[in-house]
Structure formats: structure tokens, C-alpha cells
Fold each of these.
Amino acid sequence: MVELAKDFRTLLRVAWLTEMEYRANFLISIVGALAYNASQLLFISVLLHAFGGVAGWTGPQVFVLFGIRMASHSVCAFFFRRMTDLDTVVHTGEFDRYLLRPVSLFLQLLMRRFNLQQFGDVVIAAAVLGFALPRAAIDWTPAKALWLVAAVAAGGMLEAGLQLVRGALSFRWTNTESMTGLIETVFGTFGNFPLQVFGGVGAVFFTLVLPLAFVGWIPAAMLLGRQDSLWFPGWLGWWSPLVGVGCFALAIVFFGRQSRHYASPGS
Amino acid sequence: MIEVDALVKEFRTAGSVDGRLAGLRRLWAPSRLVRAVDGVSFTIQRGEVVGYLGANGAGKSTTIKMLTGIVRPTSGTVRVNGVVPWQNRRAHAHNIGVVFGQKSQLWYDLPLRVSLETIRDLYRVEDRDYRARLAEFDEVLGVRDFLDTPIRSLSLGQRMRGDLVGAMLYRPEVLYLDEPTVGLDVVAKQALREFIAAQNQQYGTTVVITTHDMDDIEQLCRRIVMIDHGSVVYDGDLPVLKKRYLPFRDVVITPADDSDAALIRADHSERIEGEDGTITLRFDPDVTTAPAVIAQAASATGIDDLKVIEPDLEDVVRLIYAEAGR
């Protein structure tokens, strides 16, 4: 663990210095992320303005859900953005280098670049939560606040885990880029709504098959006291962060196993 | 130091389809199994410098990738300093240094200095050792001038020198070089060879080198392992290899004038008349010697010029590749 921390510090320095080589890129990325998220925000605002709520949830409640999902996404984007690079790393043969160094493969992928440009996501998420949480009449306890932090972190890990699994498939199939966008789009499109709006089958599907329920819907329902919207016993919802953590842990194991099939390109 | 036994690597590639709608039908064409390396075995002792040769596509790079632990073999075993590369990746990483001519192992966007410091930290090299080694390497490779230049801005020669320093900074027992001199100028090549030879002599570093530059081999290697179609076709001394394929030596004589030409001959040697008026006396060095041939030829007649031609490794390799290609 001490050794891992040393490697982390070393690689963090390299990633930071690399990022500083591209300061202009850094600013453009922040602006881009802000614009993208603002457009999503606008869409939901229009929707709420027109209908006054979604599937029995009030406007502020939907905003809490949106804020939690954004926060989870920024955890993923800020800490685990590099998971989406894995197919490029495999495709270009950069992975050769990782295998030759006496450092954890996962850590090398994770620290490939510093993720400062994802700062835009963090800003938006903080703004939305700052706006929505006080308006949603949540009866706060310290435990609940801590649980929210855990749920947001776990949500980020869930998304990162899915991206890592997707990327790890490229050890055998080499080209999985088409699926990178798919995960982000599905999460971005469906993840922002209370899932009961898609009917019973939809809610089950988005919980068990494409588990985006754990990134917004379940944490928001628990926090807002809207367990009535869930299709399973409400108390189960308190355990939902375990799913994100578990998914991420399994993804790292899967990544390690798939890396054995690496066929380095070229000569 | 390096033990390779019955190493095999098979790849699946998409099967080829011709004719109508080939592009579409390729989608469900059966994949083909290609055996890139087919039962390679050899043992390399500590401190050896071995040239690993083969034509393009012979299986050289795939073998090197298995030895370095980048690719897992389909079957067979590799042990480097007692470690199986893909079973104990990290221990193995400390044992080996790798330089690929085609691909830098350094951080592309950052100054060479940062890459070297990062390697120092990742391999836990003491700062005192780091400074001493950098100074030592700098004497032969002259890297100080471009320590603060980003890798992407270095010339190919500078980049290779930087990569070599990076690979030797933690004093690995084994150094793998995959086409290290490709595209380099004569001076850069010479610096690289001097450095490799010095590391081998001073620290007993075991070196495995693949190259298409026969001067690399002549200057560095005592032993050659040659591979073709995934199998070892020669493993042994460089002089023996030459002798097996080009057993003769030539004395080429330019006579003073045409009337002298007819008189030029020597015992135990074949006389070949060149189109440019030169006479070549070809002999087997086991039967007679160059001085004997020259003395006899010169005693008879007037000679303008004379040279002795040693068999060229490039010719040898060309012969072997051509033979194997048939």
C-alpha cells in the first residue's frame, strides 16, 4: 500500500506536468463541459416548467436526482476519466509500456493524464445540488449526509466500472469505441429521470440490466423519502452504494484478466 | 540468464475473402490461425551479447514481446533470471531494460529529464545512484544537451539515446534492443554501439538485439540466433555462420596491363575473370592462405592494385533469407 502510494505520487506528478503542457486545451475542455451540461439542465428545466413534475416527483425533487447523477458523473469524470481511454491505449500499443514497468497496470491507466479538464462537470454538479437540495424539504441527519456522499462516490464508481469493462473488451476485440458513447448517452439520457416514468419493466431493466438506477434514481428516492417509487422494498435502497463499489472492484479484476489476451500491435 | 523452451505463439486473423460482396461476406468468414512463433528454444548465458536475426515477418518481434512479457505465449516457457515474465511481471520488470527503435518508452510531451526522474522514482533508484549513472551515461551518449527538451521535439538519434538511458537507469540484468539503430546516422549509431558494448563489459549486462544493420551485429555480437517462419534456423558463433554459407575468400587483382592478366594464377584457387579486367582468385582459407595466393600471383606479373575480400555478413544473411523464402 505504501509502495502503491509512492507510485501514485510519481505518476500524479507526470500527469500534472503533462496537463500543464496543454493549458489552452484545459480551458477549452472546461468550457465544453459547462456548455454540454448546461444544455441538459436547460432541457430538464423546460420539461419541468411544462409539466410541473415527472411521474409524481415535484420539480425540486427531479433536480435533486439530476444533481446527484451529475455529481456521480463528475466523480467518474474527475477521478476515472481514463477508463474510457483503454481502447486507445490497447489499439496504439501504449499498453506495451505499462506491461514493462513495475507498477500496477490499473494505476498506470488511471494516471495516464490528469483530469483537470473535467472540472466543468464538478462545477455544474455543485451548482445544481446547491440549488435543489435546500428546496426539496429533506429532513437531514448527519448519517444521511454521509450516506449521500457515499452514494455519489459509488455512483461514479459504477459508471467508471462499466467504462472499464467496456474498455477491457478491446483486449480481444480491439475496437469498442462505439460503446463508449453508448454508455455515456444512456446514462445522460435516461439517468436524469425518476425511472418509474418508464413503467415497471423499464424500472426493472434500468436497475438489473443497465444499472443506471444506482446512479441517480435510488439515491434520490432514499434521500427524498420517496421509497414508494421504487419497485423493491425501500430498506434495500440503503445498501445501493455497495453495487457501485462492487461493480468497480469486479471491473478491475475483469480488466486484469482480459489484459492477458493483449496482442501488442505492430513490430 | 534467459531460458526459452518450445515457445509457440498463435494469432487469430480475419480470413480473407475474394469476389463479389467480399467486404460483406468477410463479416462471417472463419478466422485463420497464424503461427508466428513455432517452437523456439535457446538458452542465453549471463553476459552474452546475442544477435536475434530474421527477415521481416519471421517472428522476431513476437519472440521479443514474449521474452519481455508484453505478450503471453500460446505454449512453451520463458525464464529470465529465474522469473517467468507473465507470472511475476513486476519482479521481471526490474530485471529487464527494453528499447524499441519504433516506439519510445518515455513520456512523449515532457522533457527527457522528467521521464528519467519518473523512471528513477518508479524503479526506486537512489538519487545518488541516479546522478552517478546519468553522469556516466552522458559521457558516451551526450544526453545533457537535450535533457530539458520534450521527447516529441527530439531528433530520432537523441530520442534513441534518451530511451537507452531510461532503459539502463536501474541497471537491469538484461537489455533488449529491437532495431535500435534504424534510421540513425553513422555517428549516433556508433555512440549507441559503444554504450551497449561498455555496459556489457563493465556490468556483465546480457544483451539481446534484433536489427537489420549487420554492422550492429559485427561490432557487438559474438553469437547469432537466426529465425525463419517462426523456427530457429541457426544458433551459434558468428564466424562459423559466415564460414558455413560463404566458405571462400577472394583476392581481387587489377593487372598492370592486359598481357599480364593471363599470367595471374595461384595454386588451390579458382581463377575468375571480371568484366572490368580484374582477376579474382577464390580460395578456401583452410587449404591455402591469402599471403600465399598473393605472393604467387605477384611473382609472375605486374600488378596495379590488390585487395582481399572478407565474406560480408550481409551477403550471408541475404543467402539464408533467400534460401528460406523459397
Amino acid sequence: MAAPLSRTPVIEIENLVTHYGKRQILYGIDLTIYEGEIMIIMGGSGSGKSTLLRFLLGLGRPSGGSIKLLGKDITRAHPMEMHELRKNMGVAFQGGALLSSMSVGENVQLPLREHHGHLDEKTMQIMARLKLEVVNLGGFEDLMPSQLSGGMIKRAAVARAIITDPKMMFFDEPSAGLDPVVSAELDELILKLRDAMRMTIVVVTHELESAFKIADRITVLDKGRILMTGTVAEVKSSDNERIQSLLNRRPSNEEIHADEYLQRLTM
Amino acid sequence: MAESSRQGILLSLENLGRRSVDAVEEAGYICALLGESIFWIFAGPAYKQPVRVPAVFNQMVETGIAAAPIVFILSFSVGVMLAIQGIHTLETFGAESQVVLGIALSETREFGALITGILVAGRSGSALAARIGTMQVNQEIDALRVMGINPVRYLVSPALLAMLVMVPALTFFADLAGLIGGALYCALELGLSYSAYWDRTIEILEVDDVMQGLIKSTVFATIIALIGVANGFAVSGGAEGVGRATTRAVVLSISYIVIADMLFTYFLNR
């Protein structure tokens, strides 16, 4: 994988801590992600990776610590500052999260209408078509999300996410539920976004093949703690037992009680 | 035995306390939703985030125009029923001709707003809860937030505005439909001409009578919109959760509408 293109930090997480009720979910997460880098966040169920992603997206407030996106601490940012910052954030959710009441083209144009309302209709249509072509969905503008396959929905969600040319892009389980060919196409798309648009990309996944293919660096989470952050080679050669269990898909012998499991899932 | 009954009482009290706290929390949340919706309606343009007029218009069509035929049928039927019951009751005193008074006041003050409120709660309130609940389950609400689109501004404010315009409009339409139903039955049963019926109705009714129904209807509109969206936003647990939220939204809306109607009637007629 290509080395990080720059050492300019785009995402800085410092001592991030959060609780759900009395239970601690994240234990002092420290992580810096640089401009133009693809960072994979990996971990098993209940490791805290989805919680971490929600905080990165500003969809929740942690109990402590800070998250700086482009230098702005989003845990303390005013809603209007967050509004400005969100113009530089794109997200592709696990299920795509396209608005089902709108056509694909309308979905892709939606951020433009909200943030660049001064643009005329024709310009917005052209921009949406261009972004749909980037994700190989040119000509699909008039279809409804219900008419698309799972892979197409995810690609349309990427087109919507990149319509404002954001500096940061977040993917939540991009390969989940996709066949290997479509999954590989999405991996190529993620690499293309990094190389062509110099985006900083965070991918939360547990798909090893995909992660190894696209990662500049990988962060492995386990029970709310970072086990390690490193390149693919460093992670593969780690002698940490938990990491090796994850990489070699060895079943964990750890016993877990139902209430603890439910608490982990809730986050 | 005494210990187990003591435990049972304690458990019941604990449940009652928990439900009370939940109810207060929900009431607070609904008030916050109302405040935020109003904020975006008035302050949205100043923050370059206006409430979209096409979204309001779409909601108005869904809530109002599409509901007009069923509102007409139900209100017309209520008008006929009021006439039947009125004539039957007033026959005892030989005062059947006074039935016009009963129909006019009952329809404009009570039934127009109540029937419309219940119907819109069942039709549009449930649709609102289901739509927002499904969006919640599919992470569409999260997607809106991440795109910098405030979900209250985007989803709640248009629904609230549309309800506040269309429920009173439908109520006025329901008043007319009820009066037409009453006129038709009176013509058939008492041989009262339509012109005489309308002359008498206009003579009896004051602006305040119609306004009473319309004011109630704005309160009903607020109840339907806010309970619908609050239940939609609270959805968890997939399709089953959406179904539960939809049912709860309808039951709560209709209950609050009837209770609010009773309170209005008490205070406005003293």
C-alpha cells in the first residue's frame, strides 16, 4: 500500500473515553489520521469501532477526550461550526442510507441543494451526473433506491457523499452483504477517491481481504482499546494473540454473559 | 406472604415512578421539538437553512388534499346522524324544527374539528411516524445529520406547518360537509327546504362558533404532528419497532385530541 501522502493531521483523537450507563465502552483512544491516508478501523463485534465512528461523525458526545477534525474539536463545537465542518465530511453508511422517497439523482443533489442553494438546477444536475459517473452509475439518476442492487446503493451513497468534494470520507462496513466482485469494485473506488481526490478516508470494517487491499494503516480495536496501529505488514506480523485471533479467524474461547453482550451491542 | 405482597407493591410503585419519569421526559422532548421546529420556521432563513417550501407543499397535499374525500364522507355522515338523533330527541318536546340549531352548533364547535383530528391522526400522524421511524432504522436520519441537514428543520418543521394549515382547512370543510348532511336529512324527514335550512344556520351561527372549532383544530394539528414525529424518532428495533411506534402515535394522538377537546369545551363554554 502507498505510504501516507502527507504528515498533515486531518483527524486527531485524544484520550477518547465513553461510557454507556456504568459500563465503559472506550478507554482512552489516541489516534491521528493524516491527509490523504486510508485508515482502516478493525475489530470484532463490541470492540467499540462503530461507537468510535459515530463520535467521528459527530453523532454523539463522548464522556471525555477530544476529536479534532481539520483542527476543530467537534466534541465542543457549536452546532453552526459543526454545520460548516460537515461540508467537508462525506459518509457512506452500511446500508447506503439513501432517502427512499427520492430518486438516485435527487439523493446525490441533496447536499448541494442544502449547502449550495445558489447553484442553478442545471448545474446541480450536471454535478450529480458527474459524481454518478465517478462511481460507475452514470444514467441511473432517475431510478429509485428500491430499484438498485446492494452494491449500486452503496456506490450511489458514495456519489452523494462526494458531491461537495469533502476532505474526509468515512465508510461504515463498505463490503458488508456484497459479493466478492462488487466488494472488490468498491475497494477500487475507495482507492480512486484517495488517489484522485486526495481524500482522507476512514473505513470501519471487519473484512480482512478488503482491509489489507486498501489500507495505508490499520487500527485494531478490542474491548474499547486500541491494540495497535500500523501498516498492513506490521499488523500481519504482530505477535499480539488477540490480533492473530482476529486475522486468522480463530474462535475466541472467551465466555461472555448475555447482559454484557447486550450492553456491548447497544453501543 | 406479607413479604411477597410488600415486594409486589414496591414493584408496582417502582413501575409507576419509572413510567412517570418517562412520560415527563417525553413531554419535555415534545416541547423541545416544538420549540426547535418553530425556531427553524422563523430563523432558518437567517442561518441560510430555510424550511423548504416544496416539502411543506408536498405535506399539505398528503395531509389535506388527499384526505378531503374521506373527511367529506365522515363529516357528512356525522351531520346526518346529528339530524337523526336531534329530530328523535326534539320530537318529545314537539320542537323538531330546532334541530338546525343543534346541528349547526355541534358540527362547528365540536364534531368538525374532532372528526378531522381523529381522521388526520389515523391517516397522516401514523404515516409520519412510520416514515420517520423507517428513516431512523435505515440510518437516513443519521445521513441527514452528517450531511449537515438538521432533521427537525428538514422533517418536522414542514410537517408541522402543513398540519397547521391543512387541519383547520379540513375542519372548515368538515363543518360544511356536516351541515350539508344535516340539510339533506332535514329536507327528507321534516320537509325543510334547503334555503330555509341555510338561512336558519347562518342566523344561528356566530363567527365565534366556527372559530372555536378552528382554534381547536390548530391544537389538534400540533398534537398530531409532534406525537407522530416524536414516536418516529424514538424507533429502535427494525420493522417491529416501526409498527409499535406507528400504533403508539395513533393511540396517543387520538387520546390527547379527545382530552384536549374536552378541556377546550369546558373552558370555552363556561
